[in-house]
Amino acid sequence: MSNLSPRQRSQLEALWRSMPPHMRSALYNSAKAAAAADPSGQLLLDVFDELEALMGEAAGDLAKAYLFAPLRPLTAEAGTVPPSKYRFSPDDLSKMWGWLGRQIAKELVEQARKCRKPATDPVWYDFRSQAAAALAEAVAKAGRVPKDMVALDKRFGPDCRAMLQDAIVLLKFSERIDLSMAEIPAVVDDLDPDLCEHIRAQHEALMAEEPESAVWILLLVMGRLTSPWQIFRVVEKIGRRADDLVVSKTELAAIGDTVLADTGFYAAKLKQPPGNREEAEQYFKVFERYVGYSTGMVQEFGIRKDGRWGRSLFGLRAEASTNVEKVMEKVPLALDAGLPEPRRGKSGRVIPAQLPPTAAVERATGLLYFLHRAREHANAAAIASAQKRIYEQVENRMQSAGKMLVDLVANSEGQSRLSAEESLAIVADLLEAAGSDEAAELLRRRGVAAAA
Description:
Layout: H1 6-18, H2 21-37, H3 42-55, H4 63-67, H5 90-104, H6 106-114, H7 123-144, H8 146-156, H9 160-172, H10 174-181, H11 193-209, H12 211-222, H13 232-239, H14 244-247, H15 253-268, H16 277-300, H17 308-328, H18 330-338, E1 343-344, E2 350-351, H19 358-373, H20 384-410, H21 414-433, H22 437-451
Antiparallel strand pairs: 1-2
Helix pairs in contact: 1-3, 2-3, 5-6, 7-8, 7-9, 10-11, 11-12, 11-13, 15-16, 15-17, 16-19, 18-19, 19-21, 20-21, 20-22, 21-22
């Protein structure tokens, strides 16, 4: 259509738009078949391609999302996802878009907003390449002019150059990276040998063609793994070593550093004890994820205790086990406030306790739930001794309280009995939260029998 005048182009577009969709489709498919049989028919197909592109809506505000699509797997609010899935914040993308549109690539942004082709069209790779070049030139210029660097830091925050460089690489090589990732499932439950070999081959090809982009395929694959520590299976194949003696000093060190950063992310979240059952369930998921990382890293790769990764990992393990033990040690204190624990007077008579506040019961319920579930990974997390000691202590307290409350239900009446029955129900619920389902059910049955 480049040989047509603006008036002719407009008339041809109007004619194409006036046709029913089925007619346009039939013409397009005929031209496509003709071009396949005779290369000279490609010119007509090119015209139809251009006309079809004009039928779409302009990207408009979606242009930003289309342009930055390669950054999306690594974009999140800081602190909400592990480091392996975070490199850019939504605010970073907005600032880059504004910088491109207002200062360093106005024409590019204008073209992108007017583009009628879908996000999957190759034209967006060209836009990304142009954006990468504009960003690279602007960052390089800022490096030469102090006042520009001050403005850059003010716009994106201190130490922004590494973030911008990552964006430049991902945009510049987006087409090649997408091609490498095309046959890798969106979710990988187990990194089997065949897929592992495929990823190794893709990494090798990128190292030969675009070495700057090679490490990103490993980082992006890591984000698709249900067990991200399995990425060491690929690292072992690429580095041709099953330990970190040499690998931790090469460009592959970025992978081990990222796995360690993820481990630290989950370990840090174990400092804050849960305040109720819902929070405890979430706390246990974080604990489970931490254990997966800390043990998986050692199982998948030879992490030497005196190596850089080993020292970091074992430091994280010590910190995490200390934090988890501190949380478990809060369980007896939580029972002081949340367990309606009667006591026996000098005469042997059972003296009831006041009903605890709801918040105290909820806190005790959450902590007991975690104490019980922590047993599943107690050895791996180096907390087995503390977990066993505290669990036995609190279970005995609850069992003892339950027995006294059964006696209280049997020997009281009126409001006193109602209070005793309510207290007994709380104890049964706490036992259940601690995983003592049989003891909880037995206590409930004994309470019913005592009230009969």
